[in-house]
Amino acid sequence: TLATYAVVTAVLAVFSIGLYLVCRRYSGVEIAAEALLALFFALIGLIGLVWLVMLVFRNYAILKNITTGIYYERYVDDPPPDWVERPARTFNNLMQVPTLFLFACVIMLLTDYADRAQLILAWIFVVIRYLHAVIYMVWNYVPARFGCFVISSITLIVIYTRLILEWI
């Protein structure tokens, strides 16, 4: 509904102000770039966990005759129930925007560029992606999922903008 998306928009506006304040307060506060490794591995851990859930759900569905392996050969006819495929769609999502985050981490590690603001932004991104994955697999409430997607995307844009501005 319109009211739901008005709330999501208000949350995004407040979040954007929060990002600005984080950048303003913590820009230039030096940290070791290696501090980003925990975030890198936290996101890799999420990807691995979602992959494992996908594997278990799909195999369970086949073993219990909820679906057949034939569906997975061509992905047509008799799709499995939504709960079986949500982990797969979540895994697919984690192969998209989060890979850009992992690339940003590699750039920051290789160039030894990281400050406290980048670290906080990176933690925000990872936490929101965990939240997005849980919402998608468990609840699948689209406004909440959309909000998490937009918040993580805005955060990633800020991370890349700060990286680019560092080298201009």
Write down the CATH class.
Answer: Mainly Alpha
Say how many strands there are: 0
Level-2 CATH architecture = Up-down Bundle
What percent strand? under 5%
- Number of helices in the DSSP assignment: 7
State the CATH topology: Four Helix Bundle (Hemerythrin (Met), subunit A)
Which structural class should the secondary elements be placed in?
mainly alpha
Subcellular location: Membrane
Pfam family, one: MAPEG
Transmembrane segments: 6-23, 35-57, 94-113, 120-138, 144-165
Organism: SAR86 cluster bacterium
Protein described:
It is found in: Membrane. This is MAPEG family protein. By secondary structure, the protein is mostly helical. The protein has a single domain, classed as Up-down Bundle (Four Helix Bundle (Hemerythrin (Met), subunit A)), CATH 1.20.120.550. The protein contains seven helices and no strands. Helix 1 packs antiparallel against helix 6. The mean pLDDT is 95.
How would you sum up this structure in a few lines?
With 168 residues, this protein is mainly alpha-helical.
Identify the notable features of this structure and list them briefly:
168 residues, mainly alpha, 7 helices, 80% helix, globular, transmembrane helix, membrane, MAPEG-like_dom_sf, MAPEG family protein, transmembrane
Please write out the topology.
Elements: H1 2-26, H2 36-63, H3 71-74, H4 82-94, H5 97-111, H6 116-139, H7 142-167
Helix pairs in contact: 1-6, 1-7, 2-4, 2-5, 2-6, 4-6, 5-7, 6-7
Transmembrane segments: 6-23, 35-57, 94-113, 120-138, 144-165
Subcellular location: Membrane
Protein name: MAPEG family protein
